[in-house]
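Students often ask why we bother predicting the structure of a whole assembly rather than each chain alone. The short answer is interfaces. A chain on its own may look different once its partners are present, and contacts between molecules only exist in the joint model. In this exercise we take two input lines together and write out one structure for the complete complex. Read the inputs first and try to guess which parts will touch.
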Amino acid sequence: MKPHWTSHSIKDFSFRVGLDFIAQLDKKMEYPPMSHSELATKLNVDKSRVSQVFNDPGKVKLETIVKYSQALNLKVAIVTYEDDDPENLKGPIDPEIFRICWEKADKPRDFWAFEEHHEEEMKQGPEPISTADSRLYMYGELTQQVANVAPFTVGVGDESQIRLQRNAVGQV
Amino acid sequence: MKYEIEPVIGEYHPRRGVVFLLSSDGKITAKAIFEDFDKKIKDTLITRFEYWQSGKVHKKYFHGWDQSEYKGKYTNCFVFKLHTHRLYGFLRSRIKKHPSYQVCVLVLHSEKEDWETYEPDLKKVETIRSTLAVQKAVEDFFRGK
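Now the answer. The structure tokens for the assembled complex follow.
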């Protein structure tokens, strides 16, 4: 297997992390619908600046990430993880995976809440999984990744909204 | 007319891959146009291919058409979108060995300014998809996997 394209340079990996961040904003801006112009107004910047960030997110500053997220009522976490892929043959993990895991764990605000959720889950047994892409929800595998440390990804989370949308248009 | 398949991503992925259809047929433009894009556009499109491969749903970036649209004529068609660029293709599952493995065969590039799909593009994809030589090229690709 040849290395993933993001392993060619730090610039490539950073560009992908930026794209993953923008993908989250794009999704959030789908509903309720918000245009780049409306976002620019909210941020008090030119529309051209917003387009620049969306089209070339590889060099976006942390401060800009926080600012854009907050404008959409989102918070940001920088997650590092170890995925047993030190040569980066497989590329980065999508930050949405981390968000979904957090939501599936009842959105713990701290480690006590996470522990309580885990204890509760142990008592009840795991939630049955029946979707075709159940791999997305595999609990142990993903929490193990969250618990370890290595490359980083930017994840944004909206506590009120997001859930996995699987409306299956053109999908298996 | 001779048709060939060139993998783009996911050749060894357990679920999905994206490939280009190659041919001297002038209607098959996806690969040639993709190669002319600058690195940022290419990397962004590759990322969108990878999102689809990973099972992500993001209709602004890619989607198919269901039974309720165009009387269900284009349920095999698929599109990846970036700015005004559209890369149209069709989906095909590997029926024999791994029915869960699916490829998106990218066929043609088109540019558009609005959100509405331009049906003639879908018609072209559907015509190419149903060509026996194209189906054979896809089968040969699956066989070699």
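Check your guess against this: The longest helix of chain A spans residues 10-28.
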